[in-house]
Hints:
single chain, alpha/beta, six-stranded parallel sheet, 39% helix, globular
Amino acid sequence: MGKKYFVTGTNTGVGKTLVTSALLCAARQRGLRTIGLKPVAAGCEMTNDGLRNEDALALLSQASLPLSYEQVNPVALVPAIAPHIAAEQEGRRLSADRLAGFCRGSMMLPSDLLLVEGAGGWRVPLNERETFADLVKILQLPVLLVVGMELGCINHALLTAEAIRRDGLILAGWVANRVVPEMSCYQENLHSLQQRLGCPMIGELPYLAEPNAEQAAVCLDLDRLLATDN
């Protein structure tokens, strides 16, 4: 049934959607059957077709299998804030079991690569008890970590990696994404992460003033990702 991964990040705004859509783009260009899911998206806007989220639309545009928007993003929230707070403001409740059910429907479709993108970082809450990590534990997906290369990234990345492994999940790989144009001691930080994260580096994205999936795709090693345990 192909490879399946959950994509998380060291924080919000570190390029999860860029990396996810770039991997889908690279796989689609090879003729692979691909699916990208964004189970929960906050910051949706009303359109003629209903609520739509920019990140979810990016995944939909790069995937090769014709899923509906609602399959890609089953929970669309308007406020551009933490998902559990946005859901509370809308009188809704998020749960890991329910989100897992949405994901499983698409996960049953034949595909070569399926990516599930989270929101924010690893411990972003879903409700008063659960976080996105609980969703991944239910689905038992290996994790791809996107590291925003900026001041503090080593601590953020190592803490996230530690939490993923403590939750009993596989850290399949990581991607370095330069989210700021200039970073002091960039190469030294990159080397420190390569030494300490203990998983393959799938790619290194340069700073892109106007990032797009096609540009980012050439910087990612799809073969290395597909060769990881799953």
